[in-house]
Write a structure and sequence with these properties.
The structure holds 2 protein chains of 2 kinds. By secondary structure, chain A is α/β, with parallel strands linked by helices. Helices cover 35% and strands 25% of the residues of chain A. Chain A contains 9 helices and 10 strands. Chain B contains 9 helices and no strands. Classes of the chains: A alpha/beta, B mainly alpha.
């Protein structure tokens, strides 16, 4: 499904953010990326959908290297890769349903997109997705009136509206309380099991990673230190990942 | 200075506090000394200055208080005031439309982002750094005494001011939302219309309301300089020694400014 080969990225000369990353991720997998702050987790995640341009390597998704696509091709591929953010990144002044429908903007022509013209099928799908993320009754509320957990679920519904093959989640529960965190991760896990969507999630909480992940990728100083199914990851490996000395 | 982690002993603390007191003393001495030296140089007497304040106020109250006869001119004053309000509001609105248009090209999602932004910044700085009085005088020579001169002076000042404010807002607020819609595969214009503008618009509106308030105050000054609107009315009454009429003019301006400030405060609360 997603193959990352020899991926490198350097922000400042002599200080590589990603060093020869080689990772393979299967369909419907819940993959957690772990690692200390500044290890390169976000850089890796954002390199996948080209929000960050990497220096060399390959990111193969649906038999195409995302790194060499032109603007138009990249926009088409991005429609198949959803993303949710730590700070939700919703248009807070707009309603919940409008934000969910934004997931379809990539598939609209210029005028439909600019004026927010959506078909009946799309609107019905948005309503159904809101039921799926347990936000029925909130459709016409402004996003600014929602709690953090509710905003994140709107973000998930928006990503699902894209009909994605992969959802990239950049620390999706970092701003949430424990109960909301579990609710959001349960929802993401359900998507992998029921819809076969691959979720790649950056997390800081090792316990949550061990609860939800099918595969764990550990990154330290820009290099992959762990790349194993969860069952193969032991305490010593995780300790070494966060150990400042090693 | 020792860091707190290393601990600060009593002696060090005393030294630090003494140094701070010395700094305050010298600052006060320099500021106070400069004031006294400049007063002496300009032959300005503080005592005479202070005593002149109550005298000036009593002169104001005696001469500027309107009487029954003054009220007959009220309709004329109000019609000029209405024209001035119109001028202030229209100049702020038109400037806002131009500013939103120009700033939209600077949104991070738009192509040629950096080059356009530099040009827009340059326009904003150019317009803002020429004072309103200078714009009024420059335009007066070109367009002579008419409402268009006043409108253009207010428009150019408003445009410079709003451009600067909108650019800052756009920079602070738009990047996260632009990114969120970019990942759906949406293009620049779509992201601008569906994400960036709805996000920044309440703050834009707040600045436009402020600009309207400000323009009504400035329109009076511009009117004096360009011979238009309520400013011109005030100027002619004042110069012809009709202080009672000048007084009622000022009173009308104050009432309108306070009323508009209240209305815009209410509007800001609604859009917040």
């Amino acid at each position: 499904m997603l193959e990352i080969k020899h991926l490198n990225k350097t922000y400042k000369a002599g200080r590589p953010a990603l060093k020869d990353i080689n990772v393979s991720i299967g369909k419907g997998q819940f993959v957690v990326i772990l690692g200390p702050s500044g290890a390169g987790k976000t850089t890796l995640l954002r390199s996948i959908n080209q929000l960050i341009t990497s220096d060399s390597g390959e990111i193969d998704f649906e038999d195409q290297n995302l790194r060499v696509l032109n603007k138009q091709q990249l926009r088409q591929k991005r429609q198949r890769i959803g993303m949710i953010f730590q700070n939700y990144n919703l248009v807070e002044r707009l309603t919940v349903i409008e934000n969910v429908l934004h997931g379809r903007l990539g598939q609209k022509n210029l005028w439909q997109g600019m004026f927010g013209v959506f078909s009946q099928t799309e609107k019905q799908e948005a309503l159904r997705l809101l039921q799926e993320v347990d936000l029925q009754g909130f459709e016409l509320k402004n996003c600014s009136d929602l709690s953090g957990g509710q905003k994140q679920r709107v973000g998930i519904a928006r990503a699902l509206m894209q009909h994605p093959q992969i959802i990239l989640c950049d620390e999706p529960v970092a701003s949430l309380d424990p109960a909301s965190s579990v609710m959001v991760l349960d929802l993401l896990k359900k998507l992998t099991v029921e819809k076969g969507i691959t979720c790649i999630v950056n997390l800081h909480q090792v316990d949550l990673a061990l609860d939800y992940a099918d595969q764990i990728i550990g990154i330290k100083a820009g290099a992959v230190q762990i790349n194993e199914p969860k069952s193969q990851v032991d305490k010593a490996m995780l300790q070494a990942l966060y150990d400042k000395e090693s | 200075m020792k860091s707190l982690e290393n601990g600060l002993n009593y002696q060090d603390l005393q030294t630090q506090l003494r140094q701070k007191r010395h700094k305050q003393f010298w600052t006060l001495l320099v500021v106070g000394g400069s004031y006294l030296a400049l007063s002496w140089l300009l032959h300005f007497s503080n005592t005479i200055g202070i005593w002149a304040i109550p005298k000036s106020f009593s002169w104001l109250f005696i001469n500027f208080v309107p009487h029954a006869q003054t009220m007959q001119t009220l309709p004329d004053i109000l019609s000029k005031l209405l024209a001035t309000i119109g001028l202030a509001i229209s100049s702020a609105f038109i400037a806002a439309i131009f500013a939103i248009g120009l700033v939209s090209f600077c949104a991070p999602v738009m192509p040629h982002y950096l080059g356009v932004k530099r040009v827009v910044r340059l326009i904003a700085s150019f317009l803002r750094n020429i004072p309103l009085v200078a714009w009024s005088m420059l335009l007066l020579f070109t367009f002579k005494q008419n409402d268009l001169t006043g409108f253009l002076a207010l428009f150019l000042m408003s445009l410079g001011f709003l451009l600067r404010a909108f650019l800052e807002i756009m920079e602070d607020e738009s990047s996260q939302i632009a990114e969120a819609l970019q990942v759906t595969g949406a293009g620049g214009l779509v992201i601008l219309c569906r994400g960036v503008l709805p996000t920044v618009m309440p703050q834009f509106v707040s600045w436009i309301l402020y600009m309207i308030e400000n323009n009504i105050r400035d329109a009076t000054l511009v009117g004096i300089l360009t011979g238009t609107g309520i400013g011109f009315v005030f100027d002619s009454y004042f110069k012809s020694l009709r202080y009672d009429l000048a007084g009622i003019t000022v009173l009308c301006i104050i009432v309108v400014v306070i009323a508009l400030e209240n209305i815009s405060a209410q509007l800001r609360r609604v859009i917040a």
